[in-house]
Fold this protein.
Amino acid sequence: MTDQRIARPTDDRIDLSVDLGFGKVLPNPLMTASGCAANGAELHRFFDVSELGAFVTKSVMADPRSGRGTPRMAETPSGMLNSIGLQGPGIAAFVDTDLPWLASVGARVLPSIAGSSSTEFAHVAATLRASRAFEAVVGVEVNISCPNVANRGLVFACDPGASAKVIALVREQLPRDVPIFAKLSPDVTDITSIAAACVKAGADGLTMINTLLGMVIDTDLMRPHLGGITGGLSGPAIRPVAVRAIWQVRQAMAEGRIPVVPIIGVGGVRTGRDALELVAAGASAVQVGTATFNDPTAPVRVLHELTDLLVEKGYRRFSDVVGAAHGSPLPPRPVPVDERSRA
Amino acid sequence: MSASPVRARVAKEVAEVIATRRVGAYQHLTLVSPQIAELARPGQFVALAVGDESSATLLRRSFSIHKVSPSGTYGGTVEIVVSAVGPGTRWIVGRQPHDPVDVVGPLGKAFPLPTEPVPCVLVGGGYGSAPLFWLSSQLRERGCHVEMVLGAASEDRLFGVVEARRSCDGVTVTTDDGSAGHRGWVSDVLPELIDRTGAGVVYGCGPMGMLRSITDIAGRHGAVAQVAVEEAMACGVGVCMTCVMPVVGTDGQTRMVRSCVEGPVFRGDRVRWDAFEGNHARVPDDAVGAPRAGGH
């Protein structure tokens, strides 16, 4: 079966391709982050969204959802808090309008799905599978870690059992050749135990990390600043947390405590160098989120910066860099320009 | 919920500041930004990055476009009026001639223009008046009689009184403290003005409370209100979902819509003012997908 959407790498200096499993090969490792790019049309005014390895859509639930009242946002040092509350059109409108549009522009889509119960997740996955534009889907991200839910007890990714139940039900609904990625929260005592539960339940990969739960107080009003009181912290401020989480899970895979599956890194990436940090910690692909609010071209800019950086460092294959900080073979030493000219 | 607003052309460019001057309590900046100057229409806005590409202040600051000159001496220019209220706007106000500023625009929907030459009243609160002079010129080119009301807390917080006299058929000024024009609010003078001019449209730009009041008065005096709202935005381009407010759609249903792409100009009678407390909006119970008991 051939799929024209599985494009070949386009940079002749380096092989950037990423294998998500089941023959889903992306031309490069850069993606949008869910909830930071809407569903594509807005950013397509700034760059061709099909240039990215994959486009990750805003988490969609079963029914239309208004999200929370305002204020929904608070700026923090090198970051921000958001309290959107999973506003969205519902899965029926998503498969009717958003997904076909992304397919029409040639994007490879990684839809993010959410639910307030495991059966809602399963219903959303089943509707997605039955949709006419499903051939554009290269994988499904299962958002079990959104912090903006009324009851923090509903954050599935804080509990291995609840996480496993959602993943198993979603896995059943989707064809075997469509990989599913569990999106994890860093707000847990041991992220490797949640990761292990998800992979055991059928997750083909992991996305790390979602936002951290935070809070800002308006000192003029002496009240919480956000309408939702607490919100998710994102932006460059949380990048070290993402690097740590990816490192720990990759380490657990190396030690045989978790089967080896691809990790999609996300959290505070603003530049190609930032992306390389997540990759060196163990990420096979990288999402750009909050940086997009600062620079709407950030996802493709980071792709170009990362490509140049890897070429400069002498790499010929992106896959050689994944997890390099764990002590994999060192990269070939780049040959300085003046030595080359002497030779 | 048409997808058309997000298909409109938009540019991201590094603009050079070529002029900056103090105007009362505000700073008036002129930026060389040829692509945006070419595309913009009155009511649209630009989003400026704060600091350079490693700045710890990530979120863009949005400003209504005061004026564009598509073919100026330095190339097309875009002018904005800034009130320094926090660290981000203080940084922008501190830009000197020849400094670079990263600008995205034009963003949002413009003021709709009437197809017939109907009389119009333009109401600006504080520096909210910034886009109205440009709008006035376009309305008058279409044969509309245009009167403007400028209101502010005090004289130094008025913007554009001289320019208003140049670009309109009549100008009324109000200040809360009586330091200029009539002592009182724009809502004190608006009813008489609509009735006297037979205005069909009232355009407004300024604080939420003023826009609500303009909408009420316009409705009672047989005019349509078109208001440009000020909502806190993180991205300005439609992806962050923070600048939402409850607005009634053509199907009669209330939705939390993004003021950056579906606004900032809304028909006043479509805005669910009942859901606002100050500048904050709750989700009306009858909104599409509103939280059930327990919230979400």
Summary: Chain A touches chain B through 51 residues (CB under 8 Å). The radius of gyration of chain A is 19 Å. Residues 1-9, 329-333, 339-343 of chain A have pLDDT under 50 and may be disordered.
